[in-house]
Amino acid sequence: MSFSFDHSQGPTLRHDPLSNRQVYLAPRRAARPNDLVNYRKIDCPFCIENSSLTPDPVQQWPSLEALHWKSRIIANRYPIVEVGDPATEIGGVAQSAMTTQSNMHAYGVHDVVIESPDHIESVLQIPFDDWVGVWTICQQRMKQLSTDSRITWATIFKNGGVQAGASLAHVHSQLIGINCIPPTISAKCDQLIHRPALFRNILSDANNQDRVIHNYKNFVAIVPPAPRQPFEAWLISKEPCCFFHTENQSCVEDVARFTQHFPAALEHLLPGASYNWWLHQFPFISSSTLHRAAEHWHWHLEALPRITPLAGFELGTGYHVSTMPPKTAARLLRDTGCWK
Predict the structure, then answer these.
(1) Which residues pair with residue 60 across a beta bridge?
(2) What is the per-residue pLDDT across 104-137, written as a single tens digit (0 to 9) for each?
(3) Strand 274-280 relative to strand 153-160: parallel, antiparallel, unpaired?
(4) Structure pTM?
(5) Of 168, 191, 213, 238, which residue is most buried, by most CB within 10 angstroms?
(6) Angle of helix 326-335 versus helix 249-269 axis, rounded to 10
(7) Distance, C-alpha 65 to centroid of its chain
(8) What kind of fold does domain 183-335 have according to CATH?
(9) CATH class name, domain 12-178
(10) Domain-by-domain residue ranges, the chain?
(11) Which backbone phi and psi does 282 adopt, to 5 degrees?
């Protein structure tokens, strides 16, 4: 479906003064391909034989010069945020960080992570060593963004399946760096400032309440105490650490394991189920207030199955409604045998 409005307009960040909610308005994303089922390999811009259809990579595995690449990161052609005119910035910080204005340029970097050169649809089809390579170039890209003083925070996220918002079948995820701190991250920082032991307590409670799914070398996979959907899972670092990009290779391999174990377990329990995951790390630019939270932060990955849609109650109140006790979900996930 198409409508007669200007899709070429740059992205902006809109502010709702009543709810204090912010919304990214990105008209260009309306032109995204959206043929998840019928998109042919011959037309797929993410396949290696069609590399000329995409921008040059900013990161690539095994090397930026490799002709037979295994994964790559490119600029998103339909960005939620984009680098703006420096004239729209004030004191080195883009106006989108200023919430007193109702319509501001949405500054940032929006990339696509092409996870395979082949036209495959599941991360489970990617050899493990190549999957580690995907997370390695994501780590390298995060490190690049962390050095940009205009980028305040960044994340990696995946839309796996139609119900999760995927628009192309070819396996991919996305990486975004923005110049403001999302409300969810701000709320977590505020909690840590007042409850410094919060992450330690979350891990301890998960263990005591039988909600641990799997212990990795550097992380623990748990079902959270208040899951938003059945089989929601978190991967939390065992020790305080602010950023994914500062971790060693062993940690990268653990993340790669979890992000194949979780889809495998979900496919075992609910074949064909869609899911999202996203990375929650600390802001790149800290303040004296945020510094109090930084030493207690455990960066983590949240994986959310998309089993039931959000309905009126959830959308109207902000409360989620789930149907499965977290202890039961953890047991069922463990019993799939997909965590080795």
Answers:
(1) 72
(2) 899 999 999 999 999 999 999 999 999 999 999 9
(3) antiparallel
(4) 0.93
(5) 213
(6) 100
(7) 27
(8) HIT family, subunit A (3.30.428)
(9) alpha beta
(10) 12-178, 183-335
(11) -80, 155
